[in-house]
Hints:
The complex is a heterodimer.
Chain A: H1 3-8, H2 19-32, H3 42-59, H4 61-80, H5 93-104, H6 109-123, H7 127-132
Chain B: E1 14-17, E2 25-34, H1 40-49, E3 54-57, H2 65-69, H3 73-80, E4 88-91, E5 98-100, H4 122-130, H5 139-152, E6 155-157, H6 165-176, E7 182-183, E8 185-187, H7 209-212, H8 214-219, E9 223-226, E10 228-236, E11 239-248, E12 254-267, H9 270-280, E13 298-304, E14 319-321, E15 329-333, H10 338-344, H11 349-356, E16 362-369, E17 375-378, E18 386-389, H12 393-412, E19 417-419, H13 430-435, E20 448-450, E21 480-482, H14 497-513
Parallel strand pairs in B: 1-9, 2-3, 2-12, 3-9, 4-18, 5-20, 12-21
Antiparallel strand pairs in B: 4-5, 6-8, 7-14, 10-11, 11-12, 13-16, 13-19, 14-15, 15-16, 17-18
Helix pairs in contact in B: 1-14, 5-14, 6-12
Amino acid sequence: MNDRDSEREAPLARAALSPGLRATTHAIAEALFTTEDGPPPEERLAWLVDDLDDFFVRAGGRALFLFRLCVVAISVIAPLLVGKLAPFRALGQADRLRALERLERSPLALAIFGAKTTLCILYYEHPGAAEEVGFDGSCLRGEP
Amino acid sequence: MNAHHEARETPRGGLRSGREEGGDVELSCDVVVVGSGAGGAVVATELAESGLHVVVLEEGPSVSGAELGQMRPSESMRAVWRDGAFTFALGLGDSPTINVTMGRCVGGSSVLTGGVCFRVPDAVLAHWTRVLGLADYTPEGMDRYFSHVEQRIHVEEVPASMRSHGVELFAIGAKKRGFEVEPMRRNTEGCKGCGRCNFGCPHGAKRSVDLSYLPRAVDHGAEVLSDCLVERIVMKGARAAGVEGRVLDARGGRTHALRVHARAVVVAAGAWHTPLLLRRSGLGNPEVVGHRLTLHPGFRVLARFDEPVRGWRGALQSAWSGAFEHEGVTLTSLFVPPGVLGATMPGVGPEHTRQAANIDHLAMFGGIVHDQGGGTVHRGLGREPIVTYRMARRDRASVAKLVRTMAETFFAAGAREVYLPILGLRGVDADGLAAVPLETVPAQRLECASQHPLGSAQMGSTAEHSVVDGDGRVWGVDGLYVADGSVLPTSLGVNPQLAIMSVATRVAWRMRERREV
């Protein structure tokens, strides 16, 4: 097997998300899933970002590219909608919430919808999150 | 096997990954089939059973039902959905951008359907025969194909006892509004109603083609190779003589060369990729290939009830209504996992999580538009196409009718509020529904999905207006056939799985009857 072949057979464990994308995604998820009692447990957010990384390692580069577009739109445009020039992850929690709300009601709603859908699908598969929304766990996986 | 090819003799019959060959793959056979979904698996099986040596090439992996059953829904998405479901038709003009999902695995999208099986409606067949000149496509002419497939995949009615409570509520509302929902017919045997068909049946109860057809093909000597991407159809003069491509690694990267010599080539890569393969090979009428794609744009309405609903308990798709077919829409029951439900809850932060906490009180119903087309498959920069969709004015009007009908039906059943498929719109009560401008809401704010891409390599009666003839033969090319959803010349208004399989059966039987292989 030559070097090129070795590269082709690279293990699936390679990360898909860059550190910057991980940080921004973490900030979006923290705002999105905040309850009246505060942000979700850090352990759950870390699990979410790790699982998202695995999702894109397996789903492929095109899916990651489209997700990244959504996150970049949120990172750059959403702060402008609340009069801030800073990137999304540099905003305080209150500004993050207002920025996402405004983006969701704007003509660019598709950007937040794309990111939100992916994050929700994974987040509510976490046993703790599933329990909080009244899902009894049946049918999440098939019975053996 | 043709003697002049130097391809290695391989043992006849079996399912394996192209990677197991450990190097370049070169095979010879009678017929090579590109794609292992509802079209490809059926053609391959029918031809293998008639004694031909068939090779099936599938781009995606082979994943067993037992493996799928142990996956979370999102794990299934990353394993067997194309691009993890990040697949879109870009809306042009007053059209929504549509999330078009499809399978990428042995069995294709049949692994991910709700199992719904409809025959092509008589009115649609009448249009095909009278207007499009496909004289053999009468209800009587197609009956033997429908019956054959229905028997093979075990089509049965979903009993009322398997309906989820959400579907029961919708049925109550329908009755109050003067229409009925009818039992769905699906290709199942021993379904336990666990409601996760879209992520692969964990019990082998859904008779997708990886279970109902391909094992028969293998028993008759067919070779099914997963992880094999076909990039080009090889021609010898005016005749198709095989295909070329690459074996894919675990990350989807192109590795070793793939070459299959054959006396005939059947393309069944689906309406997204069949036109790409034809174009890349310089085949098919370029004025038609990739055009007139239909999608059955789909919309859902969620309704919150005071009582617990737990809509995930029951068959995923158990009932439907054709009461509004005259207005171009069909209503079909469905449900989605909690994570997807959560994603449809509007708002962010406390507002979102407060509403998401009620998902066990949500019922859901969906519907599709019997669309007139307007989609185009363009060549993209990489392997995947860029697809655009311009919704016809009549279809755009049908969207409002569809959404309002579902919402009003839920209110008739006692719903407190409904969540409409409009991005960012909060739940509305019955009075609020009247104030929502469904007819004029900007299309880019509509949440729209499709699982039925059809018609991008249509069959017809003339080479000028179609890509293949009524027997699936590509006009002007010997030995090249198309047998998947791309040949359907119009949308159906109902789920197309049975139609695709029946047309594929017809293509295979006609190949044999005409002794073309």
